[in-house]
Design goal:
single chain, alpha+beta, Rossmann fold, Elongation Factor Tu (Ef-tu), domain 3, 8-stranded antiparallel beta sheet, 6-stranded mixed beta sheet, 16 helices, about 25% helix, hydrolase, Tr-type G domain-containing protein
């Protein structure tokens, strides 16, 4: 009530009382929010109802962390909002037409995660006390590198200007090219997407890639120009770019700054107005799409899903249609963004479930959840397994760490369905694992997590891709070729160069190709075209964009992309160029295996598959580098690069030599010859029995 120029309020629950006051008029406009004083009190709920702070069931919110948010508009209207860490159990009771499912898509570093932070803060989902930067990025490595790796989801409640309270399900997606698979499956759970473009950088390569994914999923796209508060922002030019390149109508594009909070309310209003609600199909048999799953060490696998048809209730028995596994539900709920249990989830809602699932292999991403006793006729379309594209050998520096490394990879595999590994033995490196990854960043992240979280020092061999080998006769392929029904039926798939069959038995070898789009300022077009052509790239198209930028499109073998291509592109363009790639398929090429011999012994870990025309240059560079890192011995060491039996490049490491003539002062020449001959015989004998240890730096 009013006491002079003060607006006094009391909020009561069954256990606690909250008492405070705030100024009216000009004071109210200057006041944002304040924490209330807390007192123990007796039982009463009438006061809370009078203040509009009870929920739909008439119960008061009994949490001890309430906050009064005072309207900054002049006048007598005051809005009380609860900032609640644990949403009440009735959060799921909502009409389908009030649900909005949307994702945020953008290039790396254009502000996806920061925008997600502001949305969570503005809707009161996360209190200012609990807020931290990149709230939805859970791994330390994500925060340090400034990238999102595992997608996250959060449920928000927002009261729009039309007076209705909407449920907004936000899905924060990865932006890096390696994790495009994560982006595509999260978009399948949405009806709309915020396309975030940096107003200082403009349209980048992955902006386009993500937009095409969203358009394939038939999503409503809302363009948002972020970072408009920066002095270098050029929103008019960027809007022109988006319209020209993406084909979106940007006459009403939203200008925002996720850092300062500018334009966040307008984004929320646009989501409510423009993103269509999900179809209400609650009467159909249950079908729910799994868009992510991760392992919790205490409760097993947590499955994140979107209910498409029907409804899911606590205690139901469910079946995963691809893996054919059945489980009894332990708990279902929503992420707000903490786990909040509910009784049921209906068509259109996004939630999580626990069902004592032991491994993510049972709950594969893209799989369909249905009821065991009333299954759906068909699964939802779009299910496909993640295919590793880049392979590398990971070996522990200390051989005693092998079992620890196996355990560590098993634990990472629980959370990462795209990671594959199998034991591998190398004469040069000992025992380790051959691991498959989505791309170079994925490999880098897994390697860093093994070293940081599990304290295992690693040596990594040069990454390679999967080659497809056609044998001359079927009898040679027996037992090693892919089985019938597979897209690679009849071919031998080789992910390790040392496992390539004998060249005399091979008819031809195919390698995967990728379509690469590079967006760069015009100044660097020449040097980047040279880079692409040096990597066996086939020029396809070049487009001049606005703002002095150019798009180059090449088709390049994937083997040329792994390794240093990205670093070379960044260094040649002074960091301004960006790229996006997609795998096209296999093409036949003149490929050979190049082996490296040190002192006549084959070092299998250094073998690689290369194009015949480039074998000499690669062999020459490799032998020169090995000459620098292999320590000299008492005998001469030949370092050779070979294709089959032919040596194509070689270097010689000269022997360490003791001066055996130092004690001879003049005298007969025959005495000196005798000593030199004796030394030469000793070195010859040493060479025949001596072994050269290739140091670990040689493999890096």
């Amino acid at each position: 009530g009013m006491q002079g120029d003060r607006y006094v309020f009391k909020v009561l629950s069954s256990k606690m009382a909250f008492v405070g006051s705030v100024g009216t008029g000009a004071d109210a406009r200057n006041c944002g929010s304040l924490r209330l004083h807390t007192y123990r009190c007796g039982r009463t709920s009438e006061a809370a109802e009078r203040w509009g702070l009870s929920n739909k069931n008439g119960r008061t919110h009994s949490n001890t962390s309430l906050q009064m948010v005072v309207s900054k508009d002049a006048g007598s209207k005051r809005n009380a909002e609860i900032v609640n860490d644990n949403l009440s159990s009735d959060v799921h009771e909502v009409k389908t037409e009030l649900i909005r499912n949307f994702a945020i898509i953008a290039h790396i570093d254009h502000g996806k995660s920061t925008l997600a932070d502001r949305l969570l803060q503005t809707t009161g989902t996360v209190s200012s006390r609990d807020m931290k930067k990149q709230f939805l990025d859970n791994m330390d490595i994500e925060r340090e590198r400034g990238i999102t790796i595992k997608l996250q989801t959060a449920r928000m409640r927002y009261t729009a200007k039309d007076g209705k309270t909407y449920i907004l399900n936000l899905i924060d997606t990865p932006g890096h090219v390696d994790f495009g698979f994560e982006v595509s499956r999260s978009l399948m759970a949405c009806e709309g997407a915020l396309l975030v473009v940096d107003a200082t950088q403009g349209v980048e390569a992955q902006t386009l890639a993500n937009v095409y994914l969203a358009l394939e999923c038939d999503l409503e796209i809302i363009p948002v120009l972020n970072k408009v508060d920066l002095p270098s922002a050029e929103p008019e030019k960027v809007i022109e770019q988006v319209e020209e390149l993406v084909g979106l109508d940007c006459t009403d594009a939203l200008l925002a700054s996720a850092k300062t909070g500018l334009g966040i309310e307008a984004i929320l209003e646009r989501i409510v107005r423009q993103v269509p609600p999900p179809e209400d199909r609650s009467n159909e048999p249950l079908r729910a799409l799994i868009f992510d799953s991760y392992y919790d060490p205490y409760r097993g696998v947590v499955v994140l899903f979107r209910v498409v048809d029907g409804e899911l209730k606590e205690g139901d028995k469910i079946r995963f249609m691809a893996s054919k596994c059945e489980f009894d539900l332990d708990e279902i709920g929503v992420l707000a963004p903490k786990h909040t249990p509910v009784k049921k989830l209906q068509s259109g809602e996004v939630g999580y479930l626990f069902a004592s699932i032991k491994t993510v292999a049972d709950a594969r991403v893209g799989d369909t959840i249905t009821l065991a006793n009333r299954p759906a006729d068909s699964a939802l379309p779009g299910y496909e397994e993640a295919k590793p594209m880049v392979f590398a050998g990971l070996f522990p520096v200390d051989a005693d760490d092998f079992n620890d490394m196996r355990d560590a990879l098993d634990k990472l595999k629980l959370n990462d369905a795209a990671l594959s590994f199998e034991p591998e033995s190398s004469s040069a490196m000992g025992t380790g694992f051959r691991c498959g990854f989505l791309g170079m960043l994925h490999m880098d992240v897994v390697q860093e997590r093994l070293e940081r979280e599990y304290n295992i020092e690693l040596i990594t061999t040069a990454p390679s891709v999967v080659y497809r080998v056609k044998m001359e006769h079927e009898k040679h392929a027996a037992g090693i070729a892919e089985s019938e029904g597979s897209e690679n039926a009849g071919y031998v798939m080789v992910d390790n160069p040392s496992m390539l069959p004998d060249p005399s038995l091979i008819e031809y070898i195919e390698e995967p190709y990728s379509r690469v789009e590079i967006i760069t300022p015009e100044d660097y077009v020449g040097t980047l075209m040279e880079l692409a052509q040096n990597r066996r790239g086939e020029f396809k198209d070049m487009r001049y964009l606005s703002q002095g930028r150019t798009s180059l499109i090449y088709e390049i073998p994937l083997a040329e992309m792994v390794g240093t291509f990205f670093d070379s592109m960044k260094s040649r363009s002074k960091g301004y160029a960006s790229m996006e790639y997609s795998v096209l398929g296999y093409r036949r090429n003149d490929l050979v295996r190049m082996d490296v011999k040190v002192n006549g012994e084959n070092v299998d870990a250094l073998s690689c598959i290369v194009h015949r025309e480039k074998a000499y240059n690669i062999g020459k560079d490799l032998t020169k580098k090995l000459k620098e890192v292999i320590p000299r011995a008492q005998f001469k060491i030949p370092i050779q690069a070979c294709v089959g039996a032919k040596v194509i490049a070689s270097e010689h490491l000269s022997a360490l030599r003791k001066d055996v003539l130092a004690k001879c002062y003049g005298g007969d020449i025959s005495r000196k010859k005798k000593l030199l001959k004796k030394q030469a015989e000793g070195k010859k004998r040493m060479k025949s029995v001596g072994r050269v240890e290739v140091p670990q730096e040689a493999f890096l």
